[in-house]
Amino acid sequence: MTRWTMAPDRIPSAWFNVVPHLPTPPQPPLHPGTREPVGPADLAPLFPMELIGQEVSTEPWIDVPGEVLDILRLWRPTPLVRAVRLEKALGTPARIYFKDESGSPSGSHKTNTAVPQAFYNRAEGIGRLTTETGAGQWGTALAFACAQFDLDLKVYMVRASYEQKPYRRVAIQTWGGEVVPSPVDDPTHPGSLGAAISDAVRDCAGRAGSHYALGSVLNHVLLHQTVIGLEAREQLELAGERLPDVVIAPCGGGSNLGGIAFPFVPDAGVRLLAVEPSSCPTLTQGRFDYDFGDTAGLTPLLPMYTLGHDFVPPSIHAGGLRYHGDSPLVSALVRDGRMEAVAYPQGKVFEASVQFARTEGKIPAPECGHAIRAAIDEALAAKETGEEKVILFNYCGHGFLDLSAYDDYLNDRLPDEQG
Amino acid sequence: MTRWTMAPDRIPSAWFNVVPHLPTPPQPPLHPGTREPVGPADLAPLFPMELIGQEVSTEPWIDVPGEVLDILRLWRPTPLVRAVRLEKALGTPARIYFKDESGSPSGSHKTNTAVPQAFYNRAEGIGRLTTETGAGQWGTALAFACAQFDLDLKVYMVRASYEQKPYRRVAIQTWGGEVVPSPVDDPTHPGSLGAAISDAVRDCAGRAGSHYALGSVLNHVLLHQTVIGLEAREQLELAGERLPDVVIAPCGGGSNLGGIAFPFVPDAGVRLLAVEPSSCPTLTQGRFDYDFGDTAGLTPLLPMYTLGHDFVPPSIHAGGLRYHGDSPLVSALVRDGRMEAVAYPQGKVFEASVQFARTEGKIPAPECGHAIRAAIDEALAAKETGEEKVILFNYCGHGFLDLSAYDDYLNDRLPDEQG
């Protein structure tokens, strides 16, 4: 067999909290004005109390509410697939598995946290959310989730994406969300994720009944994504494997990686590998420090690897990986040596993505291509050593809305040096 | 439960042939020159002998080759989903199920026949295929399949789609296929499916080692699609249903409809419903007659409902339904009263598609929206009568590559009168 599903009643009913398993206790976020640790009251204008509680929880497991499970069931459990055709093309003794998150309504893993975030906000009487989105993976996921809970949504979309890649904008509107280009105060600026966060936070901060939602970086977001790794663990067992030798995922803000990798943190023998673009090399080239999550300095200071909150990465196709900072949990695991990180230029990423499309059939999102690149390189290394390594990576989203990037790659319009 | 998968070993290992179950025996295709019934030798320049055999077979079941099954396993069995959120929004006592074919590599049901067609051609030593594609659903599916069997592929794409909807063109190229706009001899003509068929047939007819592949209409194509209905039948049983009251699918050339509906033809109580665009109303307004499959009159004459082989339908978004003719098998079943047909203008189709997206989460292809429209209307009729009707429809493909159509609809740029 090469594809493992599970009975729908095997969707994990609790999220895995990695905090109790960290080598060192997490450092608190700091207030942007006072530089003192932030308390729940500081975050209450932005987030519902349940999510604030999850943000600082040290409980090992946190229950998934039934209403959330009812919606996750629309596409979960997702399949685990063994990439036998890719293995054969590589001539590797490694066994390559991928967890296929591309079948969600919006086509990526982002829906796993969009649904609980919309749920907790609705449960606390919030009627409207604001958020930012880069290429649109997060904006589409939240628009889908808001439609399920009858929440209004305003999305600040990085202007370059808004104008050049209109499809995800239309998807957001199809689900009933409102989209505007960011930065709102400078129509000539191409925008950045940090600036769009500033716009979205400013919009809701002063408004009763409005909250803000973030698609990555924060602890509660990564928590919600752990359904990926929990399912993968069980499915690997169905596939006759004990544990993977290495778990791989792209890393922008960290939710993709945290989702598949955190449930394996307690297993000391399992390598955990973050893959980032060499044009935005937060984990491989950044410094570990307190920094703002946004450009304008409105958010709390987070302890993380950062390239500086005013860093504007070049406009690569993997828009979801263009973020100056990183999840504090992922950052701490990298700093403490429990996670590794590697960076690739985008030409190498698309080369791997096309090889994957022609063997396994599926066309990956450019973000996802980063994990495929690293998985292929791990498999080729195993070929050198003759090792029967078990490789697991997160197939975090499809590339149907990123085909213009493939057009550039196939027609040599993708400068490799761009990163 | 609301979503039923099956174990991977439950993929049907034989296709269901509807021919023995037809109320009247099928009429043969006629040679375009002599108007005599065509024999295998007439078709041999275009198709491998195994497919020609399937085209005229009266065997009730035909084995699926193992190598084909190995590839179908990449995405099959596909899930059967109960649309409980849509039911609730409609306030209907009906139970609405859809068979979700959108998870295939190219995002539609077309891969179900692309894979066996590529396989049989490769098995008979063919190294190159030609085909036509409208919006690109078929071209992408065949490009994926050809990549699996190392076959060269040249796709003649209707020029209007080639220029205005480049994404599926890029997908074909990503899988390694070549694409050119059609008609090749008139760069100012927007093109049509019939003209693209002429181009593709002309290309391979005179060339050794080249064959032609068609994505719908022919008996062997509909045969390959019956995995959809066979799986749905078994999954409905898992869902605790006996048989559906009505089976619904969009109908352009008929492969979508044949795929889900043919396995229910022997069940006299099950209504079978074809849904077509009112701008290309082949079954509802056409005449039953022998006609050419293409514009230039190169193909055999087929006994079918037709609007005339020189009919050029208006440029609606559901490009896959813009065909002047129809499957002879579907046509015969409609003529003999075993199948019904209904037509909708595209404004009503997109209204249903947006309601589906906001309730069930998934954004459907415009072709697929036709089935959703009819399913909703059946469910609303059941609300009037209080009937607990069981409705099954084919969710034949996602709309990620059709979002510009939603943009038009949401911004009132979609003239309803266009059909």
UniProtKB/TrEMBL annotation, chains A, B:
Keywords: Amino-acid biosynthesis, Aromatic amino acid biosynthesis, Lyase, Pyridoxal phosphate, Tryptophan biosynthesis. Transmembrane segments: none annotated. It is an enzyme of class 4 (lyase). Pathway: Amino-acid biosynthesis; L-tryptophan biosynthesis; L-tryptophan from chorismate: step 5/5. It holds the Pfam family PALP. The modification N6-(pyridoxal phosphate)lysine is found at K110. It comes from the Bacteria. Its EC number is 4.2.1.20. It catalyses: (1S,2R)-1-C-(indol-3-yl)glycerol 3-phosphate + L-serine = D-glyceraldehyde 3-phosphate + L-tryptophan + H2O. Residues 73-397 form the Tryptophan synthase beta chain-like PALP domain. Gene3D superfamilies: 3.40.50.1100. Its cofactor is pyridoxal 5'-phosphate. Tetramer of two alpha and two beta chains. The beta subunit is responsible for the synthesis of L-tryptophan from indole and L-serine. Belongs to the TrpB family. This is Tryptophan synthase beta chain. It comes from Pseudonocardia humida.
